[in-house]
Design goal:
The chain is an alpha/beta fold. 42% of the residues lie in helices and 15% in strands. The strands form two sheets. The protein has a six-stranded parallel beta sheet with strand order 7-6-5-8-9-10, sandwiched between helices. Strands 1-2-3-4 form a four-stranded parallel beta sheet, with helices on both faces. The two termini are 27 Å apart. The relative contact order is 0.14. The mean pLDDT is 95.
């Protein structure tokens, strides 16, 4: 990464660097040091639900890095709010979606077909999903859940599968593992309810993709989620790690007249704000202004 940044310095005019917490922050610092040596302007883009806590622990380092950039952006209204004190000019530039890749289907009469799309890691709390399923299986014996995502190796996948067996819902769950980005729209189109169980979150692309597809979303109300989704309008938000509340939300979507259709329609309308045709011109304006030595514009 550092070698490429330096060796190819004659091939670019401006750089964009993603900033996360933890060890990834150290890499961002190193890359930006190299860019300064190369006399290249750079844009920092803030990511990750852990970043505000990291900034509280290391405020001087975070302010120093953000202050060194020509512009600082974030795709998250949550981070825009939480990180304002570390950058004088923090800009909101949403994560873009290719809406044409997703087939919108209005969920007016949803079936009990749930999908979960995330990595198997404890911060995403995947074990909540089979607990929700078990709470609903007695009333909806035909209920199905697809849990899609890579195994991050902390034992979460094995714990989730074992819990599903103990709760008697293993036969109701499909485990396709990690799938390619191009396959996600098809998986979403085959389901009606999107379950997001995470304990820490920012502005997850998986949720945005579910919005674009018109799924009815049930999500924990953590981090940046309430900045992305309005509860009772675009999703039903529940407390973290509360299987009773999440199961009740799914039950409402399946049984409450008009609710699923309203959630589906409003989620799609929100997703349309993130299409590439809207977001890309703003990025182009920002990067072109910096490459030409003008004040940043987007």
């Amino acid at each position: 990464m550092l070698t490429t940044t330096w060796r190819r310095r004659q091939q670019y005019h401006v750089a964009q660097v993603d900033v996360f917490s933890g060890s990834a922050f150290l890499w961002a610092e190193a890359v930006c040091w190299t860019l300064r040596k190369a006399r290249k302007p750079y844009v920092l883009t803030l990511h990750g639900g852990y970043l505000p806590a990291y900034a509280q622990r290391w405020p001087r380092r975070v302010r120093r890095l953000l202050g060194s950039a020509s512009a600082v952006t974030t795709p998250s209204p949550y981070l825009l709010h939480r990180m304002r004190s570390y950058s004088r000019d923090l800009r909101l530039l949403p994560n873009p979606l290719d809406l044409q890749a997703f087939s919108f289907r209005l969920r007016s009469k949803p079936a009990p077909r749930l999908v979960w799309v995330r990595a198997f890691h404890r911060i995403y709390n995947p074990t909540l999903a089979p607990r929700v399923l078990a709470s609903l299986a007695r009333e909806f014996p035909e209920i199905r859940l697809a849990m899609i995502g890579p195994d991050k190796g902390d034992g979460s996948l094995q714990s989730t599968q074992e819990l599903a067996r103990l709760l008697g819902v293993a036969a109701n769950i499909e485990w396709p593992g990690a799938v390619s980005k191009t396959e996600i729209p098809t998986w979403l189109d085959q389901h009606d309810i999107f379950l997001n169980t995470t304990n820490i979150d920012n502005t997850p692309v998986s949720v945005m993709e579910a919005m674009a597809s018109g799924l009815c979303i049930v999500s924990t109300n953590v981090g940046g989620i309430p900045y992305l989704l309005e509860s009772e309008r675009e999703a039903l938000l529940t407390p973290p790690d509360d299987e009773d509340a999440a199961a009740a939300a799914v039950h409402r979507i399946l049984m409450e007249p008009g609710l699923a259709e309203a959630l589906s329609r409003h989620a799609r309308r929100k997703a349309e704000q993130f299409d590439w045709s809207i977001v890309l011109p703003r990025w182009e304006g920002l990067l072109m202004s910096l490459s030409e030595g003008r004040p940043p514009q987007c």
